[in-house]
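note to self: dont lose this again. the chain is below, predicted strucutre after it. 180 aa total, dont forget to put it in the shared folder this time
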Amino acid sequence: MSRIGRLPVSVPATVQVKIEGQNINIKGPKGELAFGYSPTVSLSFENGQIIVSRANDEATNRSLHGTTRALIQNMVTGVSDGFTRVLQVQGVGYRAEMNGKNLVLHVGYSHPVEVEPESGISFEVEARAGIIRVVGFDKQQVGQVAANIRMIRPVEPYKGKGLFYQGERIRRKAGKAGKK
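---
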């Protein structure tokens, strides 16, 4: 049996769970998420825990078992606590600032790049430290928005300038070799 799939998902008291057919709706203080799961997986909600079980031990069903449980755990965590992805701005003259709800990036282009947050997403900026936080309740959406921001100016390997995730290891290259 799947080691991840057999663990129950504990649901806090502030989160409401509704299972209807092949859909699960989870509502909490941060927002509401819905997920349609495979018919080979069954869910039950009892004693403040969601239990995920599968029909048989076929390979696809085993993989769906663990994946479904992980997605439901992320939904419960998202609507109760939320998710944050942290980006860093590195480079001379590179900076990030807020313009209302929009994020404005000055990252070496001839114009500032303005990023509008999607619904359910908000930005926080620490201008002095060069830190951008992408905050939301849907883990996939937070990760995708952070990846889109990072692609505006990916870090380059020679000087290390650009946008990158906090804690990301930047692979640096040596420049040209000088003449002897």
